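Tutorial sheet, problem 5. The two components below are modelled jointly, 976 residues in total.
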Amino acid sequence: MGPDSNILSQMRPFFNPRAIAVLGVSKDLWKFGSVIYGSIRNFAPQIPLYPVNSRISELMGEKVYPSISDLPEEVDLAVICLPAPLVPEAVRECSAHGISAVEVISGGFGETGTAEGKRLQAELGSLAGPGLRIVGPNCFGVYSPAGGVTIIPGSGYPRIAGSVGFMAQSGALTDVFCKLSQDHGFYINQAVSYGNACDINEVDLAKYFLADEKTRIAAAYIEGVRAGKSFFEAVQNLAAAKPTIIWKAGLSPGGAKAVASHTGSLAGSEAVWTAFFKQTGAIQALSLEDLSDTVSAFYHLPTTRDNRVVAICGAGGFAVAASDACYRAGLSLASFDEATHAKLTSILPPASSATNNPLDCVNPFPSPSMLRDILETVASSGSTGSIIIDKVTMSVPMRHILGHSRMVRSEEEPWLEELPVRIRNQFNMPVLVVMRDGGDPSYDSERRRLSKYYHENGVAVYSTTQRAFDALAKMIKYYKRKGQNNDR
Amino acid sequence: MGPDSNILSQMRPFFNPRAIAVLGVSKDLWKFGSVIYGSIRNFAPQIPLYPVNSRISELMGEKVYPSISDLPEEVDLAVICLPAPLVPEAVRECSAHGISAVEVISGGFGETGTAEGKRLQAELGSLAGPGLRIVGPNCFGVYSPAGGVTIIPGSGYPRIAGSVGFMAQSGALTDVFCKLSQDHGFYINQAVSYGNACDINEVDLAKYFLADEKTRIAAAYIEGVRAGKSFFEAVQNLAAAKPTIIWKAGLSPGGAKAVASHTGSLAGSEAVWTAFFKQTGAIQALSLEDLSDTVSAFYHLPTTRDNRVVAICGAGGFAVAASDACYRAGLSLASFDEATHAKLTSILPPASSATNNPLDCVNPFPSPSMLRDILETVASSGSTGSIIIDKVTMSVPMRHILGHSRMVRSEEEPWLEELPVRIRNQFNMPVLVVMRDGGDPSYDSERRRLSKYYHENGVAVYSTTQRAFDALAKMIKYYKRKGQNNDR
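Model answer (structure tokens):
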């Protein structure tokens, strides 16, 4: 039985530990050992958590145990924050006490570039096997809300588990991705910052995300890979089963140099990675925002392979901009048949500059009943696969905040904000709403409320027109390719 | 004397009227006449403002005058919101009473596509001349904070005049640009939504922005132009003197169609516009965000032609991402000489993955004194033209909000946030700070405070790494070209 054949059971204690030991806690509360101890304690007080240090007896009001052998119960996950030279021996001791999962947070290994650092990392790696898996060293650890574990800065992360699996060498990127997930209203099942990857690496995690039933969408930040062929195969299998979105950083010359100093990986050429994405079917993201935007589309929207889109805009200028954004994203503006066009013309205000797609509602405050009629006509016309609503103020409170009552008379129907959700559910069709950032605190607060409502009800929200079209395009492209493969 | 030879004096009453008449106010407070009357009244109560309507005697507690001839003093600007068929006669009456500037807000002209609409617009245009200039019809009007005039939704706009001139056919885009200016902390001198442009058009406004001393930066949203050659010449002259940033929308096939229905203009091919930008030296923006990002760079940053940049990042992963963003923007990562590199290595924490550019501070909370030493070393090294700070938490309150005190021990020096401003002033060097959107209300509020402080002190703030590099690149490219032209 090879080390990967039981990836689910081997990873289990990282994500759902029965009890956790933290080795290397310190009286100095700013040291990583105490920080991660405090983070996990705060994140999941219900998980048995044992600080270990032979030189102190108490930490944050809890008893500190002198060694692993003194713990009152068996633990299956150890989090190690000891100085690098002490780590291999500590891992041996963990293994001897039946611990099968170890996270090594400490740095001081291969990333230092020193012979001693490399030697220590090789020694650490040699301890791993099917009965003892290691995440790290030089990482922030694992976030798994269902299992009560979190990374160094993750004490305030959501306790709700979702369906996104995330991996990154970088701890900081893992942290920022977990934070962005909250703005996008998607929930993470498990996130792993795997650092120097002396054992568990991007190949193991790709296999895990494929095997794990709760992972519905896989996302990754990749600087470089060690075993190109294995990674290619693992990602190809993963992407065939689940949307797999990868931000491959370091594709520029300077970026490749930065990758080398950051994680000592080979960044690889742009041509190689272009072929990688084309052949594996994984979706390429070009930035942190692109990565989280795309995950958000897969998370919230119903699937479609139809690349026709209707944009409903609150002004003629935005209709023009939406056309350009649609084109740049590689999607098609849907065409209406004559009957649909006639119906829309009768619904839209006479001043509308565009009764063809994109539709121009003339102002950002169309009456709720008019907007309902437009949405129903468009969604039921059979002419489109998705709808993007841009520069239309979608709630009564927001209309007040933006001063609509000084400008436009319209019914104040509280169901206005429900329209995108109704259409999404009735027609099982992706509906995306563009709501710009910025504005005063009352705008921010209402934007946050409305986004949350949409996210909880399967409507995706983006802060610019282009980001909405780009994320939708990546989703449609994935399902089209998958459909073609399945149809073969 | 042609109609353009006295563009400054002809435009004066639009931007600095002595008194304003609003024709077409209504008891119905949601009609455009009453809305814009209310907007201007609220925006600038000190400006003499006279509502005119023969059928009502009072509006919002103020006396309504039956006709222009009944006004108690001479006015120089008339804002007209009458039904289209009544507009030409009203304009004649305005002219007869010495009014030399008319804004026609009303729609129902050329944009309807009807013969009658086109005839009315032609009639209106025929009334214009050096002694009577017309903005509109079918527009939102003019915003000029120094002169106390504002557009339909502009009652809450800043009363502070800045140095940006903006023009757009679209009223909605004018509104959104004016709102975005507030997030970016730049102030507008004058913004004109010129609608169907029966008289004043993009050529006049380009000439005006060139002639007007207070306009330091010109920005435009353009769907199409009527007189290509005149526009080319006007923009070429303008861009030679002042940064001129143009978002040309409708470059895609669908966008061109949308332009035709929105403003009846010819959008023009992408190749034509690529040549236009190359030959005029105007800067092309690709979206609303790009437009305001770029204006922000010109507004806040000191000029430079040096395309070398140093990025200072709060994590190794962000250093990699910054390299890629720099490359995509067409800028160069600065190289350090040996002495500078040695000095930076001694300042940065031992765990730093990158002591070459981009610099990795290891975590987003470097101590203020370390950050000061890094910034001073970099800025004084002679190796770079600009500095971008990314993923570094730049204020003590923000560090508390983000929970730094649970993670990193560092001095709480209130001068931390002043560092970018000090470096900017001491070295007269562009400094840009990347601060991401999102987060909870306390984050939003501190982000707003800190952005405002930076904007008031010549530091530009962007919400993503790529947007910071792109905006800086557009600024540098403009000054490089200008420098080359001047050096000839």
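Marking note: Chain B has 17 helices and 19 strands. Full credit if you identified this.
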